[in-house]
Design brief:
Belongs to the LysR transcriptional regulatory family. The protein is α/β, with parallel strands linked by helices. Helices cover 44% and strands 15% of the residues. It has three domains: 83 residues, Arc Repressor Mutant, subunit A, CATH 1.10.10; 103 residues, Periplasmic binding protein-like II (D-Maltodextrin-Binding Protein, domain 2, 3-Layer(aba) Sandwich); 84 residues, 3-Layer(aba) Sandwich (D-Maltodextrin-Binding Protein, domain 2). A five-stranded mixed beta sheet has the order 4-3-5-9-6. Strand 3, helix 5 and strand 4 form a beta-alpha-beta unit. Helix 1 packs across helix 2, helix 1 crosses helix 3 and helix 1 packs across helix 4. It is rod-shaped.
Amino acid sequence: MSSLPPLAAIRAFEAVARHLSFTKAADELGMTQAAVSYQIKILEERVGAPLFLRKPRQIALSETGARLAPDVNTAFETLRDAFAASRGRVEGLLSLSSVPTFASHWLAANIGLFQLANPDIAVRVESSAHLVDFSGEEFDAGIRAATKLSPGLAGHLLLKAEFAPMLSPRLVEEYQVREPADLLRVPQITPDDPWLCAWLELAGVAMPLRPSRPFSRLGSQTLEVAAAIAGRGMAMVTPAFYGDEVASGRLVQPFDILGWDGHGYYFVYPEARRNSPKIKAFRDWIVPATESLRA
């Protein structure tokens, strides 16, 4: 690499050789004509021979310049093609981070529809509760559960994270759940869930004492719903995600009362990337596609 002339000098030579004009090369490169002439002088000193024949109103390649120009042009075309291909790969792949609940209960079932509508854009989804730092991690956008967005992020509400108790039909009958207060007899999958206290208060039921004995904590709606379907107790979850389970009779939402603490699921991305074609395409798809969830 030490035997190569400065890249700026090579770029100047390639442009001048292509245009056969110092003025046009300077305009293309955003340089002054004097600066281009200086770069050519550096290159001629490294080569040890003139690269151009200066004539009163035009220039021409010297014999040495004519031998060098095709190889330099080919090298720059290779570089242009490589960067164009890289940009194409970047623009053709949307890297998306999503909170697990949204990823498993809506995104996984629907992402294929985006792919059908946008066959030139592939989507890589990482399901994680980790809050992505877009400035330091290789993600284009994300789906987050939040009450407000961080500075510098643009966001679009996809779904309010409303909550209600859900349980298996067997437990509804076993514990004779007919009014909200009856739920106090049903085993709680997460007894200290703040959604439980908030919902009971909304339903006019006195909040129970927090359990003093140890209990397990499953840590995600997906696991809590699995336990509820298995008849292990009542879970406080977002009903909008579980319409299929209700329709199939695996889960019951015994009361229409919905609680909400201000959280929502948002499609987010850096404000500076608002006009990125792949982000715009996904935004234009997912916001209308989730409209029924917000109804």
